[in-house]
Amino acid sequence: MRLPKPLEHLIEQLQKLPGIGPKNAQRLGLFLLRLPQGEAEAIAEAILEAKKRIFPCPQCGNLTDTSPCSICTDETRRQDLLCVTEDASDVLAMERAGYRGQYVVLEKALNLMDIQDWANMDLSRLKSRLKSGKVQEVILALNPDIDGEVISRMIAAQAMQFGVRVTRLAHGLPVGGDIQFADEITLRQALEGRKEILT
Ligand SMILES: [Zn+2]
Fold it and tell me: What is the domain count for the chain?
């Protein structure tokens, strides 16, 4: 059976969402069709409105609808801590974890295999933060993979030129994990990031 063209098109579009395969896209498509007209329009409008009004903050690169963003303008936050993340969802995760300093968001997941990514990597926000002289510590919160590792070293080299301390999140074993099943890199990083037990 062939689906009606507009439904087929809707399913095709939904498959572009992360983690949505053909079956889920079909289920979502049918769900949207069953919604009352007003609710379906509200979803469509919310997507368009967000696309229209949200942009990267000129100072930190985090997504915002004000310039600069509410984090950059919040004077109660620490000015001496600067956390570098790969994208805006990492900022949300850091906020949930209780971090209350500044950010620089690199905006895109970088792929070492793609030389263009290196050429296009914009470190201007990082450099202007470092030049401001307020930052005492750069905290690298990049993903614990090979790309994150290389980018971390590159950024660390930049920050050290300004005499700024550079740290990174300790990587290691997940809570509830089992040492015998940990891969080599995870276990090595856990060993490097080991901490004294304070009693
Ligand atoms: Zn900002």
Answer: 1
